[in-house]
Amino acid sequence: MIPVTIFAGRDVAILGLGLSGLAAARALEAGGANPLLWDDAAAAREEAVSQGFAVNDLASADWSRFAALLLAPGIPLTHPEPHWSVARARDARVEVIGDIELFFRERARIRAPGKVVAITGTNGKSTTTALTAHLLAAAGKRVAFGGNIGKAVLDLEPFAPDLTYVLELSSFQIALAPGLAADAAALLNITPDHVDRHGSLANYAGIKSAIFAGLGPDATAIIGVDDAPSRAIADNLKGPYAVKRIGVGHKVETGVFVGDGILHEMEGGRELARLDLSGIGSLRGAHNWQNAAVAYALARAQGLAPAAIADGLKSFAGLSHRMEQVARRGKVLFVNDSKATNADAAGKALTSFTDIYWISGGRPKEGGLGGLEPFYPRIVRAYLIGEAADDFARQLGNDVDHVHCGTLARAVEAAANDASRSAAKEPVVLLSPACASYDQFENFAKRGDAFRDLVMGLDGAEGVRPEQGQAA
Length: 472
What we know:
About 30% of the residues lie in helices and about 25% in strands. By secondary structure, it is of the alpha/beta class. A hairpin with a 2-residue loop joins strand 14 (about 325-330) and strand 15 (about 330-335). Helix 5 crosses helix 11 and helix 14 packs across helix 15 (about 445-455).
């Protein structure tokens, strides 16, 4: 835990009692502050009480006593309208911040040693955060990573000279952290997302770009330039820091670009290093090439040599439920992409393999399989499960051979049997549902865990070793 002393002796309102809210309460208490906790949900209040916290009805509180309102990132700050607590805070001239702001203010107050790497983007930020942390740790650096992934930021290890924090930040967290000041910061990409919470794509992009606002002269800004909003931000970066551009499929003069699985590090148009990503199973697909390129640039900004990064890339296992290579059974590869809860996400997996035995379905989202038609030639057969099965069967029509399986267990069994008879070099049984899980599973992680258990229960299935993408 990181004790937060900036509000010692003062009252701080905390609205939202998830992981980050409770972590902030502990950190503030350890630093001498008096946090007053509330959540609109009774279940969250009960959980806080079960962990030893008192809760206070902030609706009836005297807001003039509060030094700050600590708002959970999932609670509306501005759109579609400010949460009632935000309105109360503003009326009382109480600042509204988040736990990320507490982290950076405490770091600045004590002039904490060590480094901070911050990562955001619409897509890929979790994989990039985990990969960056892995690269640094594999090279012998002491690393703590969290934020929007894993541990809440204030639950991480205290500041230390030899410690590098690698933080995933959502747009909601950045909006609540005006003092954000990293040593290296990366923006992967921007696509329309959370517009209901930010009011417009322009507002959303502006918040994402604020990850660079506090960079100093020795810092590095790393930005993907494959989409127009990110490219516009890159064109306008005028800070005293170094700027490294990331491109997939097209060259950049300074930064990293990846073409056909080959990573090229460039400086002023001159190539400094080259790495082959194409054989790393956990980094298949152009979207993962962007993740790898950003992680490479961040690792270089922290002093790693290309050879050390290359070794780290080969040993990266990937994140659970995100194109996770679960096992091999003979030549058949089983991949858990349960996190793909919509067609766009499933398309990234489908473009990464050929000879696919595709398990899809669940609770459908608007548009169904729309947009996946270009990937149909890669699919040998589809195995349809859950509420979406009938609708998906109509959408696939005669373009893709398909079978109704109903349950994940029947789909895994059927797909495994069919794939075992394939003449392809590497047939792939792919769970990439393009659906939410809620018809049959509590969440996507439970669905992915079930897939993993079913696969590992098959005769002859062996777990995959990330270094070579082969059976352990």
